[in-house]
Design brief:
The complex is a heterodimer of chains A (111) and B (110). Helices cover 0% and strands 59% of the residues of chain A. Chain A has no helices and 11 strands. Chain A has strands spanning 4-6, 9-13, 18-24, 31-37, 43-50, 55-58, 61-66, 71-76, 85-93, 98-101, 105-110. In chain A, strands 2, 4, 5, 9, 10 and 11 form a 6-stranded mixed beta sheet that branches. In chain A, strands 1-3-8-7-6 form a 5-stranded antiparallel beta sheet, with no helix packed on it. With 110 residues, chain B is an all-beta fold. Chain B starts with a strand and ends with a strand. The chains are: A mainly beta (111), B mainly beta (110). The A-B interface holds A 30-31, 33, 35, 40-45, 48, 50, 88, 90, 92, 96-104 and B 1, 6, 31, 33, 35, 41-43, 45, 48, 50, 56, 58, 90, 92, 94, 97-104, 106.
Amino acid sequence: GEDVEQSLFLSVREGDSSVINCTYTDSSSTYLYWYKQEPGAGLQLLTYIFSNMDMKQDQRLTVLLNKKDKHLSLRIADTQTGDSAIYFCAVLMDSSYKLIFGSGTRLLVRP
Amino acid sequence: DGGITQSPKYLFRKEGQNVTLSCEQNLNHDAMYWYRQDPGQGLRLIYYSQIVNDFQKGDIAEGYSVSREKKESFPLTVTSAQKNPTAFYLCATLDGGRKYFGPGTRLTVT
C-alpha cells in the first residue's frame, strides 16, 4: 500500500535553516501537505503543493517537490524556537481521498 | 481548527463502556475523517466519509463505528471491542485540496 516516510528527528540552531524531508510511494497523488503539531494540540496546515508544481514559497516556508524521485521537502528559513514542533508530511490518494501521513519529524530549535 | 469543533477536549471512561466523540463543522465540506494518534506516532485513519449517509473504513476501523446523518456532523463511537482505546483522536474535513483538523479529543480509558 501507500507509504510515506520521514526522518524522526531534526535539531537546528536558532536562526539557521531547517530542512525536513519526506518520501512517498503513490505516484498518482495530486496534493501533498505539510502540517505542524505543537504539544497537546491538533494539526495545523502549514502549506500544500500541487503535484504539477516543483516549488512553492510562503514567507519563511519553501516546499520542494521532486515528483520523479517522489521526494518532498519543507525548508524553514531563519528557524525560531517557536518552530519547535512535530512536522507531518501527508499525501492525498486521489482514488479514495485518503490522506496518508508520515510518522512525523520532531524539530528541536536550540537557542 | 476554525470551523471544526471537537468536544470534549479530555474524556475519561471506564473499560467496557462505549463512548462517542463529537465532531461538528460549519465549513460546508463534504468529506470528513477520523484519525487516531498515539504518543510519539503519526496519524492512522479510522473512518472517513465523502458524503452524507456514506462512510468507509480506514486502516484501523475495528472497534469503532461512525455515522454521517448530517453534513455537519461525523460522530465516532469507540466501542468496548476496541482493545487499546486510549489515544488522541482527531477529526478533519477536506475542501478541494485542503484538509483541516479539529483541536482533538484526548480519550483515556482505565
